[in-house]
Amino acid sequence: MSYKDRETLSPGTELDTDTLIAELKWDNNGLVAAIAQQYDSKDVLMLAWMNETALRETLQTGRACYWSRSRGKLWRKGEESGQVQLLKEIRIDCDGDTLLLLVDQTGPACHTGRRSCFYTRLYPEPAQILTAPLIDPATLYSK
Amino acid sequence: MSYKDRETLSPGTELDTDTLIAELKWDNNGLVAAIAQQYDSKDVLMLAWMNETALRETLQTGRACYWSRSRGKLWRKGEESGQVQLLKEIRIDCDGDTLLLLVDQTGPACHTGRRSCFYTRLYPEPAQILTAPLIDPATLYSK
C-alpha cells in the first residue's frame, strides 16, 4: 500500500507505523520537511528537516529531533538552548513528504529568542517586524 | 541588510518588500517552502513551494499561487478545483527560506477532498486516518 492507496481510507482506519515511515518520500538528501506547531495555541513555530534517524529518535524520546542541514548532524532541539519541544502528535501529509509536529515548546522556538521563527511580515504592507525576543539569545546559548 | 542583520530589529520596524523578496534564500531550484495555514482556525492546510514568479503573482492577485514541482509549472491553487486560497498575510521565517501564508481556504485544500493534507496520524499510536473528504475528489476535478 502507498500514500496514494491510503487516500480513500475512512477515518479511524488503523495503519502500521513502520510501513508509514518506510514509505515516506525522502528527498535526494534523505530528508522530509517537518513543520512544528504549538499544540494548543496552534501557532506555527518553525520549519525544519528530518531524516529517518531523527524521526525515530523523536518517536522514541518524545522530544523533537531534527537534521540540521547547515551543521550536517542531528539537532536535538533544545540541547544547547534548553528550549525543548515535547511531542504531542505527528501527522503526515497526503503524499508523504511533509510532517506536521504538534509540540509543546518550552520558551522560544527561534534562535533569535522569539517564540516563532515567523516574525517578519511580508504582506500586507508595510512589511515589518512583528514580535520581540522573549529571551536575549546571548543568554540562551551561553549555557 | 540581510535576514541575519534584521534579527535584532524591534517590533513595528518597517521593511522594504522588494528587499525582503530579493534576499529570500531560494534553494537550488529557485524555490522556498510555503506553509498554508487557515487564518482563523489556525489549522495547517498544506506545504507547497514558490518561486519568485509565484510569490509575486500571489502578492498581486491576493490568491495563493505556487510552483508545482511535479508538473513543473505555476500552480494557481484552485484553478482546476475551484478551491482557492484568499491571501490574508504572508510571514517569512528568520533565515528567509520559508514562507507562512495565512489564507482563507474555500472548501478542501487537499486533492483528496479533505480540508487539510495532514489527515494521517503517525503518533501517538495507533497510527490512523483522521478525517474524511468534505467533497468527493472525482467531483472536484471533473469541472
UniProtKB/TrEMBL annotation, chains A, B:
Which residues make up the binding site for Mg(2+)? 93, 95, 97
InterPro entries with a match to the protein in the record: PRA-CH (IPR026660), PRib_AMP_CycHydrolase_dom (IPR002496), PRib_AMP_CycHydrolase_sf (IPR038019)
What GO MF terms are annotated? magnesium ion binding; phosphoribosyl-AMP cyclohydrolase activity; phosphoribosyl-ATP diphosphatase activity; zinc ion binding
GO terms in the biological process aspect are: L-histidine biosynthetic process
Enumerate the catalysed reactions. Answer: 1-(5-phospho-beta-D-ribosyl)-5'-AMP + H2O = 1-(5-phospho-beta-D-ribosyl)-5-[(5-phospho-beta-D-ribosylamino)methylideneamino]imidazole-4-carboxamide; 1-(5-phospho-beta-D-ribosyl)-ATP + H2O = 1-(5-phospho-beta-D-ribosyl)-5'-AMP + diphosphate + H(+)
Pathway assigned to this chain's UniProt record: Amino-acid biosynthesis; L-histidine biosynthesis; L-histidine from 5-phospho-alpha-D-ribose 1-diphosphate: step 3/9; Amino-acid biosynthesis; L-histidine biosynthesis; L-histidine from 5-phospho-alpha-D-ribose 1-diphosphate: step 2/9
- Record keywords, A-Z: Amino-acid biosynthesis, Cytoplasm, Histidine biosynthesis, Hydrolase, Magnesium, Metal-binding, Zinc
Query: What EC number(s) does this enzyme carry?
Result: 3.5.4.19
Cofactor mode of binding and number, as noted: Binds 1 zinc ion per subunit.
What does this gene product do? Answer: Catalyzes the hydrolysis of the adenine ring of phosphoribosyl-AMP.
Q: Which HAMAP family match?
A: HisI
**Can you say what this protein is called?**
Phosphoribosyl-AMP cyclohydrolase
Q: Which organism is it from?
A: Sulfurivirga caldicuralii
Q: Report which gene this protein is encoded by.
A: hisI
